[in-house]
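Hi all, long-time lurker, first post. I run a small reading group and we've been trying to get comfortable going from sequence to structure in the token notation. Rather than ask abstract questions, I figured I'd post a concrete chain and ask someone more experienced to write out its structure so we can walk through it together at our next meeting. Sequence below, copied exactly:
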Amino acid sequence: MIDDRTNAADDAALADDVFKRWAERPVRFAIGTSTVDDSHVMRALRAETHPWGVSKSTPPEAESEPSPQGENLLARLRPAVVILSQPLGVALPEDVSDLPLLMVLYVREGRRLVGRVLPLDAAIGEIFIGRTPDNALVLDDGSVSRQHASLIHGKEGWLLKDLGSTNGTFVNSVRVSEALLRDGDRVRVGGVILQGVLDSPRAQRVDEIRAHMETIDVLTDAATTQGLLGRMEAWAQAAGRPEALLVVLDLDGLGAINLKYGELVGDDAIVAMAERLRRLLPDGVSCARLGGGEFALWRSEPLIGGVAALVEQVIDGVAAEALSLQEGRLRATITAAGTRVLPGAEAPEIVLTRVREAMRALKRGRSPA
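-- Answer (accepted) --
Happy to help. Here is the structure in token form:
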């Protein structure tokens, strides 16, 4: 029995307590369940607070008004599996680790979703993925349709089906209407990237994927900023090291591309840029994505022609040929700045910050101070 005298402050405090408890062990709802025996869960649902700590979407000015009886999370989550965000570095709960799962690797609009897992329980039946809260895996991203795709288990394994989505469902970069998932497959739902972890040992592999995501960018397979700084630190600590070079570049007009064609095309342009850079770069030059359309090039030893030659080669190479996108071709240019990096002169973070600022000053049309 729910105590109707419970006030909003008590509900909020209780919801926080329930969230902490659920963070240790996710709670599952059976399909079609209209009631839940746990009174603490019910009171949290009355407070309309998502179990992963995201407040309800009701505008502040409407919060004092009573909510309709049907407007609670139990209704929104049915036929739901409640999935909690698993932060990077946090092990899977024991009651989930024995199930196949999908893991969220990339969401353009919401980093908080990255690392979340969706256990694939064959007993549930068809498992829905989409933008609205009535899906088992809720992906709050504008590129995802309200009910985008679904998974159902059959004799041959897990079948992924696109449900007539606007932006499509892809498996390993190939658009599909339906496809049988294999372990390790990359699934893209709109602009969200997931990975299937179907074979054991699943918990160990999820930990490995999360560690990999810290140093390798999911969208482009280039290094992350953390991965780049790790390489620079290794160079800085090596004995007898020669001078190195660092170049930071940015895809011009990415904001305009997003506005005119949509952010999926913007992501596609970023991927195409990474591929172009890999083809252009001389041996020994590694590439990292710093965020958006911004990349860094690093070489831990001198290069013939130095920084100027590398910058010229990359600028000319990008401008020489349109980028190949999934929906066509796009002419692109970049802005770049670089520097020699002398042993013992500056910490890697300081060097990177200085070159990024110089590149951004160039984009603003003025020389750095």
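A couple of things your group might point at:
The chain has ten helices and 17 strands.
Residues 46 and 94 are 28 Å apart (CA to CA).
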